[in-house]
Amino acid sequence: MNRIILVLIAVAFVGCEESPHTHRKFQSSFESVSDFDGFYISPQGYLGTSYHNIQDTMVHSGTYAHIAWVTDTNPPSTIFQNNNHRGYPTIQFDNTPEGVFRTPCYVTLWVYLDMALYPHTPENDWFSFATFTSDESDNWSRTVLINLAYEDSCIRLVHVPNQGQQQHIYQTTTVKFPQREWVEIKAYLDFDPVNGYAKVWQNGVLVSQAEVDGCNGNLAQAHFGLYCSPRTSSGFIVNDDLLIEEVHHE
Questions:
Q1: CA–CA distance, 175 with 84 (Å, rounded to integer)
Q2: Domains in the chain, ordered, with CATH?
């Protein structure tokens, strides 16, 4: 009897060791740029109009937060040149010893946005709070974004269910994004290649949900900070209290 019990215990331990889900976390309150050591950081003064750093004048918690700002417009983007404003550190899990995160993941971020969005031709203004990819290369060829659109001032998932599409299971048109105050953005990302989907909450209220196709189950890279349309001429974004964590399926 004792031998049977020992065998069962041994099998249980083997099962735990072989579990593929480790519940890893990445957390940053942007207290130090060292949180992003080994990751790509967009150049200071990108295209002469986008800047970013760590500052202590406006924070959600702690001493510092990440701020990025726009000082002028860029020429409209073309098929040959992407002129979007950029000011952010990336998080490249594929560059870490542990490798990529396995989805599903929860992502929580506190943001403070002060940026007017206007209509333009050929593209209206937009602002992107977050970009996620399962691609481990520098191409970021398959992305999912959390954006704010000029048209209705609502947060929405972009490039869903496929790259270049905006088709949602649910999308609010009434829960407006409040600028010039701290807002919690929370996302659930499941990049399963067959049954992928994503959800986004604003201050605890579901605002966007969509299927996600064309991914491989991984969260390889992400960035948060300044990423917006080239014709935007001024404004700033502050990021604080970022948490990315692997979780079980809902």
A1: 26
A2: 24-246 (2.60.120.200)
